Amino acid sequence: MTTVWLVRHAESAVANVVHGAESDIELGDHGLRQAAAAAPWFRKLQPAVVVSSAMRRAQQTAAPIAALCGVPHEIEPALHERQVGPFSQKSGAEVDVVWAETVRRWEAGEIGYAYPGMESFASIRDRVLPAFLRVTERHAGRRVVVVAHGVVCKVLLLSILRDRSATEWTQLGRALNLSVSELLPDGSLWRANRLLEVPAPVLEVNAARRDASGKKSEA
Fold first, then answer.
1. Each residue's pLDDT tens digit, 150-194
2. Where do the structural domains in the chain lie, given as residue ranges?
3. CATH fold group of domain 3-187
4. How far apart are CA 35 and CA 175, in angstroms?
5. Over the stretch 41-66, which tens digit does the pLDDT of each residue have?
6. What angle do CA 66, 160, 130 make, to 5 degrees?
7. pLDDT of 95 strictly over 80
8. Residues 4 and 186: beta-carbon distance below 8 Å
9. What is the pLDDT of residue 210?
10. How would you classify the pairing of strands 180-186 and 3-8?
């Protein structure tokens, strides 16, 4: 049976702002430690392939997993993060207000809503779902790690899991860095054996850090 582990990338070099698709930032030192700690955990799952978006923070998360597992690392560019337009690399009250209104509208069923310059739930879904299906069809019957981005992961989960929708954005929980959802086919949809869980070795790295990373963004 096809098994997919959908993963949010590790922590970026500037973790306290919204980056979006417009900022191709690398992982920070802490993110590199997270990715290194996660790789042995994934090796025990014996994936056949690791797929990531083309963005550096996703590639740098996926690369050590693929290397330690001795499997190919494929790139799926359409899995890139949400476009955030004028708010890329920004934080603060205005960003928080816009994001809170976005979530409110999505949870009200307005999945076509987006602040000017940003992507809506519907537009993210229409970009990401075909990419996910390409990956799972290409690797049908295999064990696949897919490394993407926080908002992208949540949109995808709420689009493919049975009895889920954008109305449950908050209820689904936060997609923390290196959170993992284990997905199995369920007819034409999918079911989750694990949902947005951070592996124990990554939690240990998080607990050991000394520097404060500041407020996390969005997902």
1. 999 999 999 999 999 999 999 999 999 999 999 999 999 999 999
2. 3-187
3. Rossmann fold (3.40.50)
4. 16
5. 999 999 999 999 999 999 999 999 99
6. 65
7. yes
8. no
9. 76
10. antiparallel
What pTM value is reported for the model? Answer: 0.96
Q: Please, which residues have CB within 8 angstroms of residue 76's CB and are 6 or more apart in sequence?
A: 51, 52, 53, 54, 131, 134, 135, 146
* Of 28, 129, 151, residue with least CA distance to 84: 151
- Helical packing angle, 121-138 and 150-160, nearest 10°: 80
The C-alpha angle 120, 126, 129, rounded to 5 degrees, equals 120
Other C-beta atoms lying within 10 Å of the C-beta of residue 124: 24
